[in-house]
Amino acid sequence: MKVGSPHSSFLRMSLVVLPFLAVPASCSSLALEEVAPLPASQPAVTAQADAPPPRPTQPDGYPNLNVPVERASPQFEADERRQLVEELTDLREKHATGEDSTRALSEAERLRLLGRSHGERALEGIEAPQ
Fold first, then answer.
1. Do the Cβ atoms of 88 and 80 come closer than 8 Å?
2. pTM for this one?
3. Which of 12, 64, 96, 127 could cysteine-pair with 56, CB 3.0–4.6 Å?
4. Which phi and psi angles does 63 have, rounded to 5°?
5. pLDDT tens for residues 36-53?
6. Which UniProt keywords are listed (predicted)?
7. How far apart are CA 51 and CA 75, in angstroms?
8. For residues 100 and 94, is the Cβ–Cβ distance under 8 A?
């Protein structure tokens, strides 16, 4: 008879025991309010207080879609919209002409030159007699 490793026997045992442990927890029907009721000074919160107001419906029970929508936040004013459009148009034109890309390329080249010269200066400082 072959004896399995201790890990495999533990795994088999856990596969047998775990379903039995989960059954009592899933059958519990106690609510938190039944175990620990709210104090008298704190009013109970109902689900209807948090629910959105009922939507108007047609006589046949379908929702009425002809009701004006209530906006969640204020919309852009005309002058704000115009200003944003101008800013975005300017950025688009800059990008199309390549001003930003040439500036970025020149910056990259400057950093490459700095890296080369820094390496040479560092070697000179290390090799210099003191």
1. no
2. 0.28
3. 64
4. -65, 145
5. 666 666 555 555 556 667
6. Signal
7. 26
8. yes
